[in-house]
Amino acid sequence: MIFIHGRKTVKWQPEIMYNEEVDNNPISRIPFIPVPRGESMPKVLFLFESRETDEKEAGPDGVDYPVVQWDLHQYADMNTLKDQLPADVFDQVRAALDLEPLDVAAKKGEKISKNLG
Asked: Which end of the chain has fewer beta carbons closer than 10 Å to its terminal beta carbon, N or C?
């Protein structure tokens, strides 16, 4: 499978992975993508959402299977947007995603970090 990374075509396929649990607790709930040496993290990820409908359809074996609706979503790298957009436009993007403006979020993050240390 080939992915587009900006204007560059890349031949590796990003794979979303999760850390294993330790004592029934996840190390982190944030997934990660291992990036091969010499490659870059994709600027945009395309993911399909699959959702079963209330409908059924007979399969080739005569068994009824749920009909699945597929919707394509695109996820942009926020670091790329932050680097390429004016600050006020980036904050508009953050607001559209129900996030606080970057300076407000950064101050809250600093406060949390101080409390952890």
From this structure: C
